[in-house]
Amino acid sequence: MALLPSVRDDSRVFRLNRGERLSALERVLVLVFIGVVISLDVFGLIVSPGVDPTGSLLSIATSAVFALYLWSPWTATALLGVVLVLSFFADTESAALLAVAIAAGLILRLGWTALVLTYVVIFLLGSSVYAYGDENGAVNVGIYLVLATVAGAIGFALRMASARGRRYEQELAEKAEQERQAVLAERRWIAGELHDSIAHHLTVVALHVQMLDDPQATRGSQEAIRVAAKKAMTDLRFVIELADDGPRSSEVPTGDLTEAIDEARGEFESAGHAVVYDGDARVERLHRAAEIILARIVRESATNILKYAGPGEVTIALDIDEEFAALTISSPLPTTPRRDLSSSRTGLGRMAERVVGASGEFNAGEVDGHWRVEARLPLS
């Protein structure tokens, strides 16, 4: 399969459906070649006074026409045809035909189907006139045909090499972009993991720090802070190890739904909320992917409840049947209107992203004086 793009691109080049441009190095080489040929013609014209100036000037003009291929192959080919016609009157047709044969390299390197066909017509007509128009008999023009074939093959090979080079550059650019996107995705993943785990534990710590002034709650708050700090360090170590692609520790978060629910219930009760839990997470039909997603939703919802919920009862309902797993978490609305509370809404977005990404349904909003989070995941 890896060879298909190469074959497809090469066949597109072979069809000559569009024109090409010379690279910077090719342009320099063409200009150097033209400059050398013109210099030799001028030098011969100067040091050999007996040479026919018409033929020399026509040779110089022919060489100068090659420079036009850098900008307009159509114009250059048309002028080359004119020069070839004039050469028959100046008796320099052999030199002109030699130049036309060499031009095959530039035609196949730069041109497209219409231009190539035009060049072939000009070359064959010129060769025929030169071969059979001599009064002394037919002239062998095979050498010009061979030269044109070789030059054309070289030009076409350069064209294919240039096309492959552009394709490789594009592939390298696409690969670099993919690597950049992968790095960004990894950064977003790390940020999400930190938000889902560390932010939750810090919320617990901040909540119980406020309760340390209460002598009756001091001991429980101290224990809650110690446990939350320990879990935060464990989760942080886990994220760092994943980011470094280093050895995995055995003490890493497992995404266990039962553990997440038990942890959330304890945190709610420590914060003064009564908790009602209905359901059983220890069901074999609940596959691992759904369990991890639901555990994340429980944890993120717990973070939001500890931050924003008003006094009252928190309910957690888990319903698992043959086809779906449904989780509903309801908490009392805060005394401060929710729209006035500072929130990045990152947690809600990540919860929705996880559920929808698993072909599930997610809803969060105010219902009958409570903030309700609902997630429904398919088990098929």
Beta-strand content estimate = 5-15%
- Number of strand elements: 5
**What radius of gyration results from the CA coordinates?**
40 Å
Read across the widest sheet, the strand sequence of neighbours is 1-2-3-5-4
What's the short version?
With 380 residues, this protein is of the alpha+beta class. 65% of the residues lie in helices and 10% in strands.
What does this structure look like?
Strand 1 (274-278), helix 10 and strand 2 form a beta-alpha-beta unit. The chain has a 5-stranded mixed β-sheet with strand order 1-2-3-5-4, with helices on one face. The chain has 2 domains: 4-176, no CATH class; 256-380, Histidine kinase-like ATPase, C-terminal domain (Heat Shock Protein 90, 2-Layer Sandwich), CATH 3.30.565.10. Helix content is 65%, strand content 10%. Helix 4 runs antiparallel to helix 5 (93-110) and helix 5 runs antiparallel to helix 6 (113-132). It is rod-shaped. The protein has helices at residues 4-14, 24-47, 53-67, 73-90, 93-110, 113-132, 142-209, 218-244, 257-270, 288-308, 346-357, and strands spanning 274-278, 313-320, 324-332, 361-367, 370-378. With 380 residues, it is of the alpha+beta class.
In terms of topology, how is this protein built?
Elements: H1 4-14, H2 24-47, H3 53-67, H4 73-90, H5 93-110, H6 113-132, H7 142-209, H8 218-244, H9 257-270, E1 274-278, H10 288-308, E2 313-320, E3 324-332, H11 346-357, E4 361-367, E5 370-378
Parallel strand pairs: 1-2
Antiparallel strand pairs: 2-3, 3-5, 4-5
Helix pairs in contact: 1-7, 2-3, 3-4, 3-5, 4-5, 4-6, 5-6, 5-7, 7-8, 7-10, 9-10, 10-11
